[in-house]
Amino acid sequence: MSGSIIVAAVVIAYMAFMLFIGWYSKHMISGNADFMVAGRRLGPILMAGTLAATEIGGGSSLGVVQQGMGKYGISAAWYVIAMGFAFVILTFLAPKFRASTVKTVPEYFRRRYGRLPGIITAIVMFLPLIGLTAGQMIASAVILSTMMGISFKVSVIAICVIVTIYSVMGGLWSVTLTDFVQVFFIVFGMAVALPYALNLAGGWDNVVANVPAESLDLFSGYSVIDVIALTVMYITTFTVGQEAVSRYYAARDGRTAQKGSVMAAIINFIYGFIPATLGVIVLALINMGIFDATQFQSVGSRYALPVLAVAAMPPLVCGILFAGVISATMSSASSDLLGAGSIFANDIYRQYIKTEATDEEVMKVAKIVMVLAGLLSLLVALFNTSSIITILMFSFSLRAAGAFFPYVIGLYWKGASLAGTMASLIAGTIVVVYLEQFTHGVIFGIKFGQPILPGLVVSFIAFIIFSKLMPPKEKTTELAYDEHES
User: Where do transmembrane segments lie in this chain (predicted)?
Assistant: First the structure.
């Protein structure tokens, strides 16, 4: 059997196993809470696996390899390690997330502050999840087509069909179980690549001798300020991002949520250095003349890892690595897909379209929206309507800038009010839009790499001032009763 056939067989078997898990998980669904938050029964190991897999995507694997072989060197690891810092900090909030007994972030806003913040956050958080789903599926298809040598159209159809089917069949249960398998493939596949890459380079000493000294400097690409900014960005997006915080909602209890968060952080700390080191090794191989830089021109330096894998690894190991890299984006896509379906069904359909909808009807609507989101991703990819993705992805920055402080402070401060929340949502949105569209991240001559940071500052000030000026009628952190709570 030729090497390419073995690689293809491993990848196909992996995808078939994902579909099997989706079918198996279908039998674990008995209601809406099972579908959206896995019946709030996740243990720490499953929670850690799904948290890590959701946030370790294409950027955390192929993207970090690319950064490692470029100006960032080994410091590219901070892109992933900063996620671990965020998970550690979220450990302190984890019990509060779990105790709120909500299914979605907009549900928290609705029950804490009222219907207006509820629908605003539902819309603001629904749109970027559609964009993220499309982006991740497209990334998965590009990876699959590049690695397997098949057409992009065939790849994108295969990815969209597989991710949509297993996500729709089992909801968060299937997403969690597939994530658990996927995080193993991601970490194991990349780790196994290291010794083969080092062997091709003739050992670590040869690598060191053939790369610039700054490539081995932990702060050559990312400064301390950059790491802090990344960590803040991750904290805010993980907190209000349905694809991440739903894992805390799904934990068995608060203590389990904390353990899962810490374990996810450890996975990120370990994993971060693997793709960065592989990037440095690829740079050394180019400088040694073993690789020709023109090898990457046809597929782009982002796909340096597949080139390395084909040159250095046996077909079976290469197949495992390819499955791992593809799974990195598939796991993120499935979480985004489920988040979009959950928010639309729970916070738009049930609240504004059919208020008397049963749990069964809500779950069906969530599945329909997930299928539609999958089809939209397919259309965007096939017809190259990148402008749609650009518009949807722009809203990604908006969801965290205005919503973070009303959510987190509202868990603890009885004085948090509707007026403060609306002021925060509006002010954070205006600042991010202004920076993104008009000044390209520059305020008073200062360049902000992440427009969300000044957005957070302004939203915090607005939230506190308006909550003080227009306090709530009843000072409490308790959420309003929801007859659908489960």
Answer: 6-24, 45-64, 76-95, 116-144, 150-173, 180-198, 218-241, 262-291, 303-326, 365-383, 416-435, 441-466
Single pTM value for the model:
0.89
- pLDDT tens digits, 150-209: 888 888 888 889 999 999 998 989 989 888 888 888 888 888 889 999 999 999 999 999
Tokens found for residue 18: 């994902």
The neighbour count for residue 411, using CB atoms within 10 Å, is 17
Q: Per the domain annotation, does 351 fall within a domain?
A: yes
Alpha carbons 188 and 162: distance in angstroms, whole number: 22
Distances (CA, A) of 9 to 16, 162, 180, 183: 10, 16, 21, 20
The DSSP result for 236-273, as a single string, is HHHHH-HHHHHHHHTBSSHHHHHHHHHHHHHHHHHHHH
Contact 312/197 with Cβ under 8 angstroms? Answer: yes
Question: What residue numbers bound the domain in which 79 lies?
Answer: 3-384
User: Tokens standing for 29?
Assistant: 């669904």
User: Please, are residues 76 and 275 in contact by the beta-carbon 8 Å criterion?
Assistant: yes
Question: Domain with 202 in it: what CATH number?
Answer: 1.20.1730.10
Q: Residue 14 to residues 3, 17, 181: CA-CA distances in angstroms?
A: 17, 5, 10
